[in-house]
Amino acid sequence: MATFIIGLVLLIVGGMFYGKVCEKVFGPDDRETPAITKADGVDYVVMKPWKNMLINLLNIAGTGPILGAIQGILFGPIAFITIPVGCILAGATHDYFCGMISMRNGGAQIPKLINKYLGKGANKVYSVIIWILMLLTGVVFIYTPGDLIVGDILKLDINGAAIWITYACILGYYVISTIFPIDQIIGRIYPVFGAILIISAVGVFIGILCDGGSSMTNLTAATLFNQHPSGVKFIPVFFITVACGIMSGFHGSQVTLISRTVKHEKEGRKTFYYMMIAEGAIAMIWAAGAMVMFGRGTDISTGATSMVGIISRGFMGGFGGLFAIAGVIVLPITSGDTAFRALRLMIAEQFNIEQKSKIKRVGLSLIIFIPAIAILFYAKSNAAGFSLLWRYFGFTNQLVATFALALIAVYLKSKGQNHLITLIPGMFYSFIVTSYICHANIGFGIEERLGSVFGIGADSYVISYTIGVIVAVLYGWGITKIAVKRREKILATKLE
């Protein structure tokens, strides 16, 4: 319990302090925002600060900070320190600068910003990866809430006809929210969703406090490097597993949506930075809830989705448990709808497809939803299909974040600001994603294939870590070089 409380205090106090540091580095002013200069009644719409904050929180907080945190706590109480530190220095920083730089560039989506600050080559690679990520995000956020609704609330067979009816209803909502103006659907229904989310998180938190810490483990020298039950390494697996609770590249696509509805730049710290801190708190709460239940005897091999019901009912009883589960269902639904919306806007922006026309919005949406349905069918009909997609989703989620951190570093350097604030997290995560995909069996499986040649075991990370370090160094060198050139070009232009 002590480690959990220390972690929460660190998250809140550290977040308040570092959020101000990020704001000072960026320097928001009183210029008109895209919500005013490009108002179109569809995507560029001024909304109230509290509504922007709530919508952004619901957009970025999918099932990742819950399911990921439940799995991440198996690494031990170190998660209660790693989550807040990572959230403050990487995740919230990433979200804040992505949202603010987008606002300074007319509400541009990340692919367009990548093109501007990193070049056309990087944009082509990034665009393909982010489009795939958005599509997978939308699909998995149909799958997970659908299974929770049918299995935990309706108590029906998740492989029967009811599941497809539920999927169809969720998909129908996604279609509507993707096509209609943001303030007509999302802006009206999210306050209700937000209330459910907050109440459920508070309920679990109260349950943890009532437990008194009797079922929780504190961080000590003996528990610092506890081995995961399955033997996987803390680095890099933990940072891929708890992705959304620490940092998520997916968030870049979401904060740029809200950058089009913010009236004043100075609202950015609360809207972008603090909402990621709130997501980190959600991850902390569910991680602690899982630790309590595991401490009470719940089998550690229990799946993360099943643990949601166990934690909810364990702390809030029958009715309260259903309400908490509803809060978890809200998270993926309120991320899936804007994932599809963001994908529509990215494709439209890439190919200059005007989006005021209803016919063009519907046509482009159909192009998106047809492959989404096909992927959903594959994932549900293949026993290992969804598991495979989810693992690639987790890896890709962190990979796209390294691109965003790079463009932020270049932007800051070009303005004469401290670019290390995102370059260092970018180097760390380039090491994480590289070492993970090099070692994982869904990637290159280098140690398994070459371990015998070098006299190392398949579970070793020696080769993968080495490659990860090299990539991280090259990442830092390459981004700094691009940033310096852009800075020199800007200075030369001013002198002329």
Automatic annotation (TrEMBL):
What membrane topology term does the record carry? Multi-pass membrane protein
Q: Which UniProt keywords apply?
A: Cell membrane, Membrane, Transmembrane, Transmembrane helix
* InterPro entries in the record: CstA, CstA_N
Name the predominant localization.
membrane
Tell me where in or outside the cell this protein is found.
Cell membrane
- Domain of life from the UniProt record: Bacteria
Concerning Pfam families, the annotation shows: CstA
Annotated Gene Ontology cellular components are: plasma membrane
Bilayer-crossing regions: 66-92, 125-143, 163-182, 189-209, 234-251, 272-295, 315-340, 361-379, 391-412, 419-442, 462-484
Q: Name one GO biological process term.
A: cellular response to starvation
Question: Which residues does the UniProt record annotate as the domain CstA N-terminal?
Answer: 4-144, 168-292, 300-434
Q: Give a yes or no for keyword Membrane in this entry.
A: yes
- What PANTHER family does this protein map onto? CARBON STARVATION, INNER MEMBRANE PEPTIDE TRANSPORTER
Family, as annotated: Belongs to the peptide transporter carbon starvation (CstA) (TC 2.A.114) family.
Supply the name of the protein: Carbon starvation protein A
Q: Which organism is it from?
A: Variimorphobacter saccharofermentans
